[in-house]
Amino acid sequence: MYRTFCAGALMLAATTAMGGTLEDVKARGSLNCGVNTGLVGFASKDSNDNWHGFDVGLCRAVAAAILGDPSAVTFHETTAASRYRALNAGEIDVLVRNTTWSFSSDVDLKVDFAGINYYDGQAFMVPKALGLSSARELDGRKICVQAETTSAQNVDEYFNRYEMTYEAVPVDGTAEAQTLYLEGVCDVYSSDASQLAAIRATFAAPSDHVLLEDIISKEPLGPVVRHGDDDWTDLVRWVLNALIAAEELGVTSANIDELRAKGTSTPEINRLLGLDGLIGEMMRLDPEWAVRAIKAGGNYGELFARHIGTNTPIGLSRGLNLQWTEGGLLYSPPFR
């Protein structure tokens, strides 16, 4: 009796408190998602102005979960300098833009990270003609690096650690960095390894440029939401977790309808698919929210393979982004 009463009271209190961004998105009928200004493989527009990419896929999954329509997204281009301002000003509901979860970004900027969708690290790209094989050979070089980002700080700390010097060439975004790098204004371009791979894929001769093997930082990238709206944070976090868990559990965009129609002998899959439990109700969504999120673009592995995997021009291996069962760091808390 006591446990039943407490559970009911807690559910009522949670339902009463919920609202905020979720209700705004429902009323608006679309999700405002902040993305990169154009990073092939992650977030870029095609010739018809349609957005595609790994980060775009997460935006569409959130929209599908809430609104039932993966196309109900308005994409807002953000730069490293404008992204947090746009988020905190309410111009976007969620930021999905190669943004590093660090102490300062989390605590000082008063935002919340809803998880990690890509484990990255900072690297260096150089022209192959320079004949360099290690970052320890970069002493005295000119390095393009985005201003006001953790990338600039990482470069400075790395060079100080090894008592090397360099000349920083600050840039405002990937487009400017790419131009200055190709024009030879800087000898080196430093950023997240995934970003460098995406940029190199757009070059006329990608093989003329190499990514040095040295990784100089930890860059856990993830979706960001405004501080203080816990219910919205939970929703974005569990949409991401649904995509990760689906891959681990073998649920794909191709078999999900059959699994839901027949049911399974795995309780966690049944809960994920809305066949058992009240997971959707807890977030003020219907039971099939995760089904729609997964069908929007596939599970985590499908999204990765389609947009940035080894068979794409970006050519990224899973590495740390393998499932924890396969030696990687990718891990969803249980759906129970």
UniProtKB/TrEMBL annotation:
Query: Which family is annotated?
Result: Belongs to the bacterial solute-binding protein 3 family.
> What residues does the Solute-binding protein family 3/N-terminal domain cover?
30-259
The record's CDD domains line, in alphabetical order, gives:
PBP2_BztA
Listed Gene3D superfamilies? Periplasmic binding protein-like II
Give the signal sequence positions: 1-19
What's the protein name? General L-amino acid transport system substrate-binding protein
The answer to keyword Cell wall biogenesis/degradation applying to this record is no
Which keywords annotate this record?
Answer: Signal, Transport
Natural source organism: Sagittula marina
The record's Gene Ontology biological-process terms are: amino acid transport
